[in-house]
């Protein structure tokens, strides 16, 4: 009976680690998406600073639709704060903010990768014990 309890505990731990690994991997995918989005925004801001006043641009409307337009203010951009609230900010601090956000995402991603490795190692350590327990149970 003690062996059965030991197996149940090991199996539950294994399942919990598998679930944790799945969550960490999903978080890693989300971080990668966020990184790409912030990097694109940073590149757009960098391109913006190279433009001339009243340059013609294509304004994305969504789903492959664009409008033609021009930019009249090259010194500031509008930053969305949520709930349709916008704040006008100068380009340099916005660019610095994006660079800091990228560093933050990279650190979080690195930390998450370390957690993924740690959990994977725990799973790999636990798997042989579970296999032995299953083999012994099948012999009986």
Number of helices: 2
Kindly name the structural category. alpha+beta
Number of strands: 4
Query: Distance between termini?
Result: 13 Å
CATH topology (level 3) name:
Helix Hairpins
Share in helix: 55-70%
Structural descriptors:
alpha+beta, 140 residues, two-stranded antiparallel ribbon
How would you briefly describe this protein structure?
This protein is an alpha+beta fold. It is built from 2 helices and 4 strands, in the order αββββα. The chain has helices spanning 2-48, 91-139; strands at residues 56-62, 65-70, 76-82, 85-90.
Structure overview:
This protein has 140 residues and is α+β, with helices and mostly antiparallel strands. The chain has a single domain, classed as Helix Hairpins. Helices cover 69% and strands 19% of the residues. It contains 2 helices and 4 strands; from the N terminus they run H-E-E-E-E-H. The protein has helices at residues 2-48, 91-139, and strands at residues 56-62, 65-70, 76-82, 85-90. A two-stranded antiparallel ribbon has the order 1-2. Strand 1 (56-62) and strand 2 form a beta hairpin. The protein is rod-shaped and about 80 Å long. The chain starts with a helix and ends with a helix. The model has no long low-confidence stretch (mean pLDDT 91).
């Amino acid at each position: 009976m003690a062996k059965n309890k030991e197996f149940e505990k090991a199996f539950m731990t294994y399942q919990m680690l598998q679930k944790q690994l799945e969550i960490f991997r999903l978080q890693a995918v989300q971080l990668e998406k966020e990184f790409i989005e912030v990097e694109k925004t940073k590149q757009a801001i960098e391109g913006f600073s190279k433009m001339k006043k009243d340059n013609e641009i294509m304004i994305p409307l969504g789903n492959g639709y664009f409008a033609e337009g021009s930019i009249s203010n090259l010194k500031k951009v509008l930053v969305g704060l949520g709930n349709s609230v916008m704040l006008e900010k100068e380009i340099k601090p916005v660019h610095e903010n994006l660079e800091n956000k990228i560093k933050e995402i990279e650190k979080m991603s690195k930390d998450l990768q370390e957690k993924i490795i740690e959990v994977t190692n725990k799973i790999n350590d636990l798997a042989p014990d579970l296999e032995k327990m299953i083999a012994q149970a099948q012999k009986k």
